[in-house]
Design brief:
Blueprint lengths: L2 E10 L15 E13 L2 E8 L8 H14 L2 H4 L8 H8 L9 H22 L3 H9 L8 E6 L9 H13 L5 E4 L5 H14 L7 E4 L6 H11 L6 E3 L7 H10 L4 E3 L6 H10 L8 E2 L8 H14 L14 H10 L4 E3 L20 E2 L13 H11 L1
Parallel strand pairs: 4-5, 4-10, 5-6, 6-7, 7-8, 8-9
Antiparallel strand pairs: 1-2, 2-3, 4-11
Helix pairs in contact: 1-4, 3-4, 5-12, 6-7, 8-9, 10-11
Bound molecules: oxaloacetate ion and magnesium ion.
Keywords: Magnesium, Metal-binding
Cofactor: Mg(2+)
Pfam family, one: MR_MLE_C
């Protein structure tokens, strides 16, 4: 298989909401179409990729560094011994002449291309991505469906406690059992009122509510909130301090007995391994949220899984950030603990196929070949326009 052309674009995924750290008024995403020389039903197979929310587009790195390396590579450098196009070998080619460390936006750019390459090879194989991953890297027995929780509960101008409760009710009505809300964007007194309001909607069951600080707290605020929320037995307390402050996380874990989740802003196996080594994370209860679409793609995510295994962690402790269709396949194939979902947010890239049904907080990736972005009509319109 040969890639005959590559088409990079940038689309807005903006929204008026805000977490404790940023608003999303200028949020955007790279989108990519890789057109191949494989013809099916008279049309070339095309692989699509995009980046997850929270980081901005990385289109220039894709165009200036990654794609030129792929196009300059000899066919033998991109195909394995069985003659198959290999996203893993392509990954090595893309990372030529890149120093280690300082992963930043480069991991986003590689993630976009890695996703498009996996979409392409799995379409060429005629199978949904999760089956291909399970056959190549898993146990050949993927999960039928994946646990998903509904993330929302953002701060927004004029949003009242009643609005917050209504939002959470809509999540429950659409099939989710567990929900997530933002905290840390106001003071503790206000946040406790917001938490109480949401727990009321959850019939008083705090173990169905996760809270997300988006890295805002210093150690003393982290511990102050920890003490205040401990009695609620929350589903998890997320990204409490700066994502690279492993010492803060380790101290928090000594004081807070319930689950902690973090990792959405760790973009490499090296950073994830440091979290396991120095972050005090507890393999019996905590969650790792590394998002494959932001962190060098599936090829690197497999390395993260290997590092977890070496440290005695189960793949079930991973629930990736991002709420997108790519991680949903990965979760089903590698028996992850679940995947995030943002009903209605971060469109058009976010979310699952249009026909996906959430039942008992579970959803299936679907049976379309590849990632299945053709099953997301609005997003597919943008992707298709890249190369038509
Ligand atoms: O608000 C955000 O940046 C998204 C986020 O943290 C999450 O999905 O966990
Ligand atoms: Mg988060």
């Amino acid at each position: 298989m040969k890639i005959v052309s590559a088409h990079v674009g940038t689309i807005p995924i903006r929204s008026s909401m805000r977490n404790a750290y940023i608003d999303f008024s200028k949020m955007d995403s790279s989108i990519l179409a890789l057109v191949s020389d494989v013809i099916v039903d008279g049309k070339p197979l095309v692989g699509y990729g995009f980046n997850s929310n929270g980081r901005y587009n990385a289109s220039h790195i894709i165009e200036d560094r990654l794609l030129p390396r792929l196009f300059a590579a000899a066919p033998a450098e991109l195909h394995n011994d069985s003659g198959e196009f290999s996203p893993s070998l392509a990954w090595d080619v893309m990372m030529r002449n890149e120093k280690p460390g300082g992963h930043g936006e480069r991991s986003v750019a590689v993630g976009v291309v890695d996703m498009a390459l996996h979409d392409l090879v799995t379409k060429a194989a005629g199978v949904p991505l999760y089956r291909w991953i399970s056959d190549h890297y898993g146990d050949g027995h993927p999960d039928d469906s994946v646990f998903v929780y509904a993330a929302g509960g953002y701060y927004a101008p004029g949003k009242t406690l009643t609005d917050l409760q209504d939002e959470m009710r809509r999540f429950l009505d659409s099939g989710y059992n567990v929900v997530k809300m933002k905290i840390g964007g106001t003071d503790l007194t206000e946040d406790l009122k917001r938490i109480d309001a949401v727990i009321e909607v959850l019939d008083g069951d705090g173990s169905r509510l996760a809270v997300d600080v988006n890295g805002k707290f210093d150690l003393s605020t982290a511990l102050e909130y920890a003490q205040a929320i401990e009695p609620y037995h929350l589903f998890w307390y997320e990204e409490v301090g700066d994502p690279l402050d492993y010492s803060l996380n380790a101290t928090l874990a000594e004081h807070y007995p319930h689950p902690i989740a973090t990792g959405e802003n760790l973009f490499s196996v090296q950073d994830a391994r440091n979290l396991l080594r120095y972050g005090g994370m507890r393999p019996d209860r905590d969650y790792i949220q590394v998002d494959p679409a932001l962190s060098y793609g599936l090829v690197e995510y497999l390395r993260v899984q290997e590092a977890l295994k070496q440290h005695g962690w189960s793949s079930k402790r991973c629930i990736p950030h991002g709420g997108h269709q790519f991680s949903l396949h990965i979760a089903a194939a590698l028996h992850l603990g679940g995947n995030e979902s943002y009903p209605g947010e971060f469109q058009p890239t976010g979310g699952f196929t249009d026909d996906a049904v959430i039942r008992d907080s579970h959803v299936s990736p679907g049976e379309l070949p590849g990632i299945g972005l053709e099953g997301k009509a609005e997003f597919y319109r943008h992707l298709h326009a890249l190369h038509e």
